[in-house]
Amino acid sequence: AASDVYKRQVVALKFVLLIKGAEVIEKMAHWPINPQYRMACEGLFELDEKLAWENIDPEHYYRELHFSMQLANRRGPVSKEDLAEFLGLAAQLAGEVDAEIDLPPIQNVLTDAQDLDDFAVQCDIQLSFSIVPNMISWSTKEVEAVLVKNGCPLSRDGLSFNHFSQNQLLFKVQIPSLNFLTDDLQTQRIKSIIFALEVPMVAEDYDAFTKMYEISSAIASELDGRVLDDNGQVLDVGSVAMIKAQLEPIYALMQERQILPGSATALRLFS
Fold first, then answer.
1. pLDDT tens digits for 26-44?
2. CA–CA separation, 6 vs 68, rounded Å?
3. pLDDT for residue 106 is more than 80
4. Rounded to the nearest 5 degrees, what angle is found at the Cα of 240, between the Cα atoms of 239 and 244?
5. What pLDDT was estimated at residue 2?
6. How far apart, in whole angstroms, are the C-alpha atoms of residue 124 and residue 176?
7. Residue 53 contacts residue 66 (beta carbons within 8 Å)
8. Strands (E), 126-260
9. What is d(CA 52, CA 24) in angstroms, rounded to the nearest whole number?
């Protein structure tokens, strides 16, 4: 239960008599709906003489519950106050349903949270570069047309053009300080196009950085521009290979922690 590494099983409730899922859901109705650190509850369910952990089903009966809490995200590790509130809610529920409760030492959980946050800081890498025009600027219409043509449709909020592969977001393309849905595009001129990839959010197999460079190079060619790195230097194939080599230790660390890039665990941890 609660096997994702982004969270730890911090509370276990055990019952002499089976408890129905509907009762558990009713007792948890007052818990925070959108807490800063995600909470989860799983129940041990018997089906065809086999036991399995599952999200709480109102029609199923459970002999054991596990409550877990996300220990870190981009805001940092969970605080002692947030953790104490969560453990208090679980203890209150245990009292209401007459369950035996197993609580961990708070300090142990806080240590795990800090360790997870330290790991996340090492791996929270964003790679970005830009396309700038060889002349003065571009019109919004020509930039939008070329981006869409190269597989980067406009997002629903109008703030970015997103490139997907098999429903996986690989990278975003943004025009600084410009919303393509709400701003007056007739009066705007574009002097730079920013490409950005969040490394831990995309599976390594997609080779997203190479893909982003290839697409940006094609766009730069069509718009008569050049691709520059963060230091304003021309980004070429050799530079891309060097950057990819620097990513290898990051991927290895994530593999070691069993938090694979692009996995549901990584998406929660780096959100």
1. 999 999 988 889 899 999 9
2. 10
3. yes
4. 120
5. 38
6. 22
7. yes
8. 126-133, 138-139, 161-165, 168-174, 189-190, 193-198, 225-228
9. 17
Give this prediction's pTM: 0.82
Only one residue has tokens 């035996």, namely 100
Q: Rounded to whole angstroms, how far apart are CA atoms 244 and 238?
A: 10
CA distance 90 to 11: 7
Query: What is d(CA 34, CA 26) in angstroms, rounded to the nearest whole number?
Result: 17
Contact between 196 and 171 under an 8 Å Cβ cutoff? The reply is yes
Question: pLDDT (tens digit, 9 = 90+) per residue, 228-250?
Answer: 998 999 999 999 999 999 999 99
Nearest to 260 by CA among 212, 209, 195, 206: 206
pLDDT at res. 118: 95
User: Strands 61-70 and 7-20: what pairing?
Assistant: antiparallel
Coil, helix or strand at residue 48: coil
Residue 172 amino acid letter: K
Half-sphere exposure for 70 (CA within 13 Å, toward CB): 19
